User: Which sequence fits this backbone?
């Protein structure tokens, strides 16, 4: 199993009792196995001299192109890739009757088109430049569309891929670059993130803290023999031995393992309204990701809704901190602690409300995760400037607003923060990961900005493709990298001083009206 724990810190201690119930009785700090591409995959320096020179160049001609990174080539067979937002006669956004933003469709009315997919990569035992004339490691058919929310506005889009057989329906699994078998994949195209690294670094670092964090690989992309730049090939959140490893659903059983997501409403969402919707604490629905809509029975849907509803209701009830009805009877506390800290550190304002997943194994407790979408983190939101932000951003999430009312959750969070700052979330670990990933990427990002370099000038992009105000936009790659590191160091410095101030949210004066 890919998410094998490889280290256990043997500090065992008893924490925090309430009415005889232990919130955390033993602390087994796990570090999860993680393949770090920028450290373990071939480096530019590993290549023979002629290959190294070719892979260092700015050449993007498909006939002579060379890279030390893996390369993906996609042939759309003469079709336009669907998924761009549609506008009305007044150039406003088009919505359906449910308020869902409408996107373009393929000529046959489908949301995807069939494409030919090829993946090229070097042999680990024989370092060499990667070329489109090589024999592909993977040669397959896939269904393709543009994906994302705000990123659909970008000139450099992100894509969703699903490998299928010729019938365009039957899924087909492929192992891409050692990430394990899967049919569904994402190609994230960093555009607003001028470092090209936010998602890659986030998944690489935090994947050692939280299980099932999607694997990522930096690649270069060609579509119809036209160079598209640096992309991040990512696992998507799905159930599987190499994804979220929970028990397979049995359609003959009412109870089931499940994965749900809180995000923007979409046309293909199998959504349900939960307790937070009912009490108007959130407007974002929940979507059942697993079991899939084709395999989900009505009885299972109702059961999942009831289970999630019961957890949220317990959190918002007067009994939220009692032994019989407390919220901790329903959730994996440590996953919520780690999720809180990761998203506080990254200033990821979407977390808890958008791009937020939850999963539960049959017979287990609800966990938050896997992590998803850090393109806007570290002060990279278009309209919201978090420079010198002084505050806890996760208080905006209705779930964490209530979790922080509980003294035991707060104390566990403070202790865990101090623990992680000595290792996985130390300044040294974070900055060295950014620096080494940037160095690894250098020739490829130079080629990327041969195509997309104009985007450093805010006057040459649309309002939906830049930070606001214009002064926030970096003028070059070095400035973008410096901004990322500066934001990170300022945030960790603030948290180091203020993490214990989380106790203000569980103080009796703050929780009196919530207590029984």
Assistant:
């Amino acid at each position: 199993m890919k998410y094998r724990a490889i280290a256990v810190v043997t500090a065992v201690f008893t924490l925090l009792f309430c009415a005889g119930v232990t919130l955390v009785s033993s602390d087994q700090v796990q570090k999860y196995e993680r393949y770090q591409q920028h450290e373990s995959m071939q480096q530019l320096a590993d290549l023979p001299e002629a290959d190294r020179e070719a892979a260092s160049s700015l050449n993007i001609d498909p006939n002579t192109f060379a890279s030390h990174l893996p390369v993906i080539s996609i042939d759309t067979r003469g079709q336009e890739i669907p998924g761009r937002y549609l506008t009305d006669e007044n150039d406003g956004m088009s919505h359906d009757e449910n308020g869902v933003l409408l996107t373009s469709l393929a000529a046959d009315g489908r949301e995807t088109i069939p494409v030919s997919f090829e993946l090229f990569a070097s042999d680990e035992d024989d370092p060499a430049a990667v070329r489109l004339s090589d024999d592909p490691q993977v040669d397959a058919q896939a269904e393709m569309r543009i994906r994302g929310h705000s990123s659909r506005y970008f000139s450099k889009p992100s894509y969703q891929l699903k490998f299928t057989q010729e019938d365009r329906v039957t899924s087909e699994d492929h192992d891409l670059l050692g990430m394990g078998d899967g049919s569904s994949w994402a190609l994230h195209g960093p555009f607003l993130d001028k470092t090209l690294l936010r998602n890659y670094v986030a998944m690489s670092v935090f994947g050692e803290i939280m299980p099932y964090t999607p694997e990522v690989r930096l690649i270069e992309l060609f579509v119809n023999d036209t160079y598209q730049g640096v992309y991040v090939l990512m696992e998507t959140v799905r159930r599987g031995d190499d994804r979220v490893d929970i028990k397979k659903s049995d359609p003959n059983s009412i109870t089931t393992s499940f994965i749900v997501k809180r995000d923007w409403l979409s046309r293909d969402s199998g959504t349900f309204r939960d307790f937070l919707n009912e009490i108007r604490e959130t407007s974002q629905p929940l979507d059942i990701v697993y079991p899939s809509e084709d395999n989900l029975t009505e009885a299972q849907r109702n059961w999942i809704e009831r289970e999630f509803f019961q957890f949220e209701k317990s959190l918002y009830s007067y009994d939220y901190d009692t032994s019989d009805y407390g919220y901790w009877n329903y959730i994996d506390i440590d996953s919520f602690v780690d999720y809180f800290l990761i998203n506080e550190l990254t200033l990821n304002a979407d977390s808890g409300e958008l791009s937020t997943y939850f999963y539960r194994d049959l017979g287990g407790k609800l966990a938050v995760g896997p992590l998803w979408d850090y393109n806007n983190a570290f002060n990279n939101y278009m309209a919201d400037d978090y420079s010198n932000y002084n505050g806890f951003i996760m208080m905006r999430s209705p779930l964490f607003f209530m979790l922080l009312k509980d003294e035991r959750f707060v104390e566990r969070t403070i202790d865990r923060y101090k623990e992680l700052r000595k290792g996985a979330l130390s300044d040294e670990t974070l900055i060295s990961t950014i620096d080494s990933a940037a160095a690894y990427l250098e020739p490829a990002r130079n080629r990327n900005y041969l195509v997309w370099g104009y985007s450093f000038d805010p006057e040459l992009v649309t309002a939906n493709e830049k930070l606001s105000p214009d002064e926030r936009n970096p003028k070059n790659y070095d400035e973008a990298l410096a901004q990322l590191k500066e934001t990170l160091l300022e945030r960790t410095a603030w948290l180091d001083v203020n993490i214990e101030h989380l106790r203000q949210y569980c103080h009796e004066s703050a929780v009196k009206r919530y207590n029984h």
Summary: The first helix runs from residue 37 to 40. Confidence is low (pLDDT under 50) at residues 3-28.
